[in-house]
Amino acid sequence: MEKIELCQRDEVEAIRLKYGHETASHAFASLYIWQWDMGLTILLEPDMFAVKCRWKGENAWFFPCGGEEAKARFLRGHLGEPDFKLCYIRPEDKAFLEKCFGGRFILRETPNDHEYLYDRQEQILLAGGRFYSMRRHRSRLMREHEVTIRRLCPGEMRAALEIAGEWKHRPHPEGEGGLMDRHAVTAVLERARELEITAVLAYVDGREAALCGGYGLCGHIFDLSFAKQRENMTGLSAYARGELLRILPERYTCINAEEDLGLEGLRNLKQNMRPTGMNRMFEGEVRRDEA
What we know:
Elements (H helix, E strand, L loop, with lengths): L8 H10 L9 H11 L1 E6 L2 E6 L6 E3 L2 E2 L1 H11 L6 E5 L1 H11 L3 E5 L5 E5 H6 L6 H13 L2 E5 L5 H12 L15 H7 L7 E7 L2 E10 L4 E9 L6 H12 L6 E3 L7 H9 L4 E3 L2 E5 L5
Parallel strand pairs: 3-5, 11-12
Antiparallel strand pairs: 1-2, 2-4, 5-14, 6-14, 7-12, 7-13, 8-9, 9-10, 10-11
Helix pairs in contact: 2-8, 6-9, 7-8
């Protein structure tokens, strides 16, 4: 097992993209920035990688990503271990387990890990009755305040880190298992160039007020991995998010806004954004009488 290092990025991403893994859970940028909060380490082989996740359990692993033979070998090697657990299992991974291991795993759906998917143009335009409230709040913000946007660049990084720092020092509910973004947003900002992050800063009445950004997940999907505000201001998140999506290359038509961690407020926000789909996730444990 190894610490997740930037020098592994190209190899991890090559394996992920080779095998068509399009969820945010296994993307290198996500793994890198969440390694401190989730206790992640990586096993990296020529045709597979697997990530151990101490937040999910002492012997919990993301479902391995790679070739079928390499994945099966990894799984067989861990079947007899105590408390072996798999998480972030996609429906196609679930089918792989059922095909190759029969009924040896007990699988359950984990809605807190589902990833929300959105149509990019819908999130920019906010047209129609489904988006009435979001559109009204955004319009009111723009009417009552001077609101501008700047693309994040090295000269703006200090302001971005200040917003992230102020956000972290405000009280927030914890996600499932006590997970909180204590280090992820700082890590993504400090390594924005290496992780190829695209982000914007929103200014309200001349003051930096919000931060929003992410990275390309695959050919047509952009991962919206962070959005922070200096203080709660109705309509600001919709404004910053929309302006970020406007500047993306045209090839990105789908937005992945990741999971809601079981947090009611975050779940309500993401559901109110009107997702067009979900990446469903499962967890699995070995049947003890089958190990």
